Amino acid sequence: MMQTQVYYLKSICSQSVFYRGLTNQLKGIMRVLPAIACGLLLVALLGITGCDTPEKALKSTDINYKKAKAISWYNKKEYYKCIPVFEELIGLMKGRQSTEDLYYMYANANYQQGDYMISAYHFKNFYDLYPNSEKAEECLFMYAKSYERMSPKPSLDQSYTMKALDAFQLFLNAFPNGKYISEVNVAVTGMRKKLEKKALNTAELYYKTSNYKAAATTYINILKNFPDISEGEYVTLMIIKSNFEYAKNSIPSKKVDRFEHVIKSYGDFKDKFGQSKYLAEAAGYEHNAHYLAPLSAFDWAEVCPLEDRENSFNIFFREAKDNLPAITDKQENNQITQLIEKGYFLIVKSNFQASEERKKGDKVPFLEETVKTYYTFVDKYPKSRFSKEAEKMFNISTEQLKKFKSNGQS
Question: Do residues 202 and 218 lie in contact, with contact meaning Cβ atoms separated by under 8 Å?
């Protein structure tokens, strides 16, 4: 028992000595580690400063060295390194050595780096400086491609899209049979689709915000600018709808002409898309326009200045005559027919009211017009519901005319 205890105590003591030793060793290593880390960092910094960098190349006075490094970085696609060196080399070598190849690589490096505004300028400038170069065609194509890459999504401003299309057109003019024709056609088609969508979005926004005049104009321009647009039927329908809403919300004096425009728009639609799925909807707007055109003409004639009313009612009569055959709804047809009768009566009344607003001799022309239009009215409607009122105005007018004539004022 005693021996076992003694062995146990020795074991504990030996372990304590081992751990104390290990602890001291670790403390020594920890003191050495910062020095090792500093040394490694120093070695790394020396390695970096010893490598070729754009800064080192730019500081060098050896043009051949600069050129070799820039081309090497370009070939390795390290464009951010070669760009500043190419830029300096082009300036240093200008007038002394050809920079054609370097300039091409510089322009292309900017394109590959995503600096499309810069690449567009330099590709075009390359083409202008070296029109006979074997790379001239490529550079003019890349000039257009640079703008294409800047073309944004349809919801944004399309200025760069338009610039790209102009650039591609310039390329086609210069190289109508060039090797990039198929790529140009694909690019142009894509950008025109983008412009179509932008224009459609704009027109839709105008319509949704009740700016119907702008909507109609934009839809019309879409058909002019994109005659082959796949949404042609829909766009033509929207021209009718926009014109209809614009007419409906116009001031009374402008409604008639604008409803007539709706009718014309429908005629154009039917001629072009006689089997369209939108034909019934379009016909609905046309039907309403046939009814609202004479109705609007009557409404305006009722409220326009007295001296203009007879002429305005005559416009209403023409509108009614032209549109009645197309008004198939019996109730609407009867309403317009009744308004024609009322219109002839209101001409008599308007002339009579105008005479009452004048003084003495100034009354005579309006009194005479009252009598004249009364005869027209009773000839057309001898049993009108307005006959008694019209006859009363006629009698007053004839009596006043007699007095003026007897007083020598006629």
Answer: yes
